[in-house]
Amino acid sequence: MRVFLTGATGFIGSRIVPELIAAGHRVLGLTRSDAGARMLAAAGAETHRGTLEDLDSLRAGAKRADAVIHTAFDHDFSHFVANCEKDRRAIAALGGALDGSDRPLLITSGTGIGNAGPGTPAREDVFNPSHPNPRIASEEAGNLLLEAGLDIRVVRLPQVHDTVRQGLTSPYIELSRQLGMAAYVGDGANRWPAAHVLDVAKLYALVLDRGHRGARYHAVAEQGIAMRMIAEAVATGLGVPAVSLSAKEAQAKLGWLAAFAGFDMPASSEWTRAELGWAPGGPGLIADLEAKDYAPPPATA
């Protein structure tokens, strides 16, 4: 198949490209830049110029493909709600280009949307349309397309990591550097799920080849890592103390991250593994945090 991949030069998408090519697919990758085009060509992929905001470019790319994998997302979490609404529009545009066909569209969401109740791991079979997480917009858009007859499949992501990037932990690290401490809320027992980026890329390829219409899949290798463990690993890397804050103190110190720092967000991938034979084997989040280079990023002019 020729697969149109948004986010093809991004953290996850750039790892999906070789997985798809190894599986015998051709990749048409979305990029906005010459550098991105060179990266795609070097990886053996075709280039489609466009942006997440240019809905016509998304439609044009989807029309050229036998399947679409949508991983592009604006990860400026200080504008999370607006970016989730941007994703809603992008999914609607991609789906509109596939209307009347059986070509699959894989969209991306977060494991938190599968939350089944306090203290229990999020599950693939749970979808709550009134969920307060703004990322629900992505799955709402997908559901509308599913109801219209399209082949929609959802991949839900935890904290996706390697030794360079670690999901929400990356901005947390930079904030901890600024604060001079790695903060956690209360006893820090609340949990974040995680998976290595290469395992996540393998799952997208499996969902394309073996997944089925209307299903949701969890890219979860570790069900839940205590926030205190994450804070302690970051504190060691930065050479700062790990500090417990009250919820009120966290709100004052952590800004937008406070909305996530105290959440208990465990997630299961038991069904995904059984359904697709997915067997994640990459390093864990703490191992990647321990191996990370914590040198400050170079100053920009």
Describe it.
This protein has about 300 residues and is an alpha/beta fold. The chain is about 40% helix and about 20% strand. The protein has 12 helices and 12 strands. It has helices at about 15-20, 35-45, 55-65, 80-100, 135-145, 170-180, 195-210, 225-240, 245-255, 260, 270-275, 285-290; strands at about 1-5, 25-30, 45-50, 65-70, 105-110, 150-155, 160, 180-185, 190-195, 215-220, 220-225, 240-245. It has a 7-stranded parallel sheet, with helices on both faces. Strands 7-9-11 form a 3-stranded mixed sheet. A two-stranded parallel ribbon has the order 8-12. Helix 1 (about 15-20) crosses helix 7 (about 195-210), helix 6 packs across helix 8 and helix 8 runs parallel beside helix 12. The protein is globular.
